[in-house]
Every structure is written in C-alpha cells, then in structure tokens.
Write a structure and sequence with these properties.
The protein is an all-beta fold and 128 residues long. The chain has strands at 19-23, 38-43, 53-58, 70-81, 87-95, 104-106, 114-125. The protein has a seven-stranded antiparallel sheet with strand order 1-2-7-3-4-5-6, with no helix packed on it. A hairpin with a 5-residue loop joins strand 4 (70-81) and strand 5. The radius of gyration is 15 Å and the shape is globular.
C-alpha cells in the first residue's frame, strides 16, 4: 500500500518505519475512537495482542459496519494445548467498544480469513 499523504505526528516518541496513520471510519470503537479520527498504528507488532486494539484485514468477508475489508477492534483470543504439544487458537474475538455493535467471532475453521495488520498506538485527532 502506498502513502496517500503525510501528517505531522507529535507525542508518540521516536517514530520508525513500521508506524503509519490511518483515518477511522465508523462508530464501533466509540467512545475511544471516533469516525474521522486519525489513528497511529505500528505494523507487524511482536508479542501478545490480547486486549489490544488492532487493525485487521478481511480476506474473504467484510466488516459488518462499513462493508470494507479493514476493521479496528479490541483483540481477544482463547487458546488450548494441542495433542501435538502446540498452543492453538480455539476462538478469536474482535470486539467493538460501542455496545451497539456486535463482535466478530473467528473459529478455527476461519483461519486465514482475517490478518492482523497492526497494533493501535493512539489517536491524533479529528479533521473536523
């Protein structure tokens, strides 16, 4: 994906090549993130995503709120230990903060349908 424009970012410490800004669309993450907010993300985060807000990309399905191929939600997962000695996801839930919206629940058979793109770092503000 190529940059569309440049914005000034303050208050996020040392910036690096994995950081980018994207504009929020929709109300599912209110009251923390509002439609039109500029959001700062770090792509390909390391470590646990549990409880963090993430940017996810749909491969086959669409966001129920916007119909688009990207969504911003809080990440929750449940895991179990497999007979092969590995941890495996049994369920991933992408939770909206706004209770007017329903969570997106991914089961093991949905593997590959959604890719976690980036971790949310904060909000720059609104354009209006």
């Amino acid at each position: 994906m190529e940059p569309e424009a440049w914005v000034e970012v303050e208050g996020f410490g040392q910036l690096d090549e994995k950081m980018f800004v994207s504009r929020a669309v929709g109300r599912s993450m209110e009251p923390r993130i509002y439609d039109g907010d500029f959001l700062v993300f770090r792509s390909k985060p390391v470590g646990s995503r549990q409880g963090k807000i993430v940017l996810a990309q749909y491969q086959e399905i669409a966001d129920p709120e916007t119909g688009g191929s990207y969504t911003v939600k809080r990440y929750r997962s449940e895991k179990s230990f497999s007979p092969q000695g590995e941890w495996r996801h049994t369920k991933i839930t992408l939770e909206p903060l706004n209770h007017e919206f329903r969570p997106i629940i991914l089961e093991p058979e949905d593997e590959g349908a959604v890719q976690m793109i980036a971790e949310y770092l904060g909000t720059l503000g609104k354009t209006n």
